[in-house]
Prior knowledge:
Blueprint: H1 18-22, H2 28-36, E1 43-48, E2 53-58, E3 66-71, E4 76-79, H3 89-100, H4 113-134, H5 140-147, H6 151-190, H7 193-204, H8 208-219, H9 227-246, H10 253-263, E5 274-287, E6 291-300, E7 306-314, E8 327-335, E9 343-355, H11 365-378, E10 384-396, E11 403-407, E12 413-415, H12 418-422, H13 425-433, E13 438-445, E14 448-455, E15 462-464
Parallel strand pairs: 7-9
Antiparallel strand pairs: 1-2, 2-3, 3-4, 5-6, 5-8, 6-7, 8-9, 10-11, 10-13, 11-12, 13-14, 14-15
Amino acid sequence: MARPTVVGMIDPEVRWTAEQVLALAPDDASRKAGGKLGLAGPWSDTGAGAAGAVWGLCKGSGGKPYRTVVDTAGPAYKCSCPSRKFPCKHALGLLLLWASGGAALPAGGEPPGWAGEWLAAREKRAAREKSAAAGAGAAGAAAGSAKAADPEAARRRAERRAVRISAGVGELEQRLADLLRGGTAGAEQQGYGLWEETAARMVDAQAPGLASRARELGAIPRSGPGWPGRLLEEAALLHLLDRAWLGVEALPEALAATVRTRVGLPSAPAGEQIRDTWSVLAQYDTSDGKLTTRRIWLHGRATGRFALLLAFGAAGRSPELALPLGLAVDARISPHAGAAQLRASWGEQFGTPEPMGAPPRGAGVASAVAAYGSALRDDPWLDAWPAVLSGVVPVRGSEGAGWRLVDASEGTALPLTEGAVERPGLWKLVALAGGRPVTVFGECGHRGFEPLAAWSPEAAAMVALV
Length: 466
């Protein structure tokens, strides 16, 4: 079996690899279309600036070529095409042309006016944001006042929403009681429609978190063997969340913040910003048909902490935030409030991305499971926890046992999730290991382990698995 292409092997100009570029694609269609534009043929008037900007004109179906410019330090993109995808196929193609390092995209030039204007506007905006951040201490009171120009109106809105959510929780509790009264056999006969109706009621109650969990309950009876047990587990967790919401004012502040977030109230940064060199370990999108959610996992080189960035795209638009896999970025992040919460917001970035280097320090399977269990004490609704496993071997179990990561020193094992087994990334992992222990980063949860990136014993280069 051929070995997979690795990411993280960067030349002195810190140009990305083709795999890093394609990892930014919002979907498979954009990835394929961008790959076709990664050649010199459709491009003209291309160039690369000293500050990490690349630009060019791409021939399209119309009379005028599309103007495309990318700031690789962001990364950020601008294209005159009508595509609603972000980045579009032209931006991906231009980056692939730049990553190839050929003469088709000469370095050291001055951008044309249309590209220079956009780049200059980005510089001015960054300067304003930096100035605002520097004066945040002196202007803190004014900023707080501007943010809440009418605190009394905001308080009344929050109270009205809390009342609606509480009413929705009451309906949901009645629905759970009916489920237990009728038994799991009745749940299989009722089908998905009743729970979809319940989810719609939770949306009306402004509790999207409860709506999402209601939809999951409706899908469990069709999820295969063992579904009655899974249905009862999820129903119990949903009941626990309902009761926690009804008594949220009496909970410790960190747990109360977690409950509000799980119900569906917006999460906001809280506390001091953290500056570190953040390694970009994984980036992937999920969609519920109406909203695309991008998850980006970071690891701080100095702090040793994990952070999760979430970005959203609605109505068919992909999220704007995208970071290059396998690179490290000097930046500030703002952690969000809540118990066992790793979510953060991306802040000011300093300089350009650099090679990530060695993988984060890993641990054994037992330590990863213990860390997830500890996090569950603070957040019982937590699906998974980040973990770096060192010295594990992907092994296929016998008699339908499925794929597992076996700890070479402890002999313990973690099953892979069903989603991981179905993705091509599993075969990348198997090829990388070749029967030997490797280091794997992923999400450890009650459904199993979801591998997202891996490193071979011979090199520090990262292999993206999603």
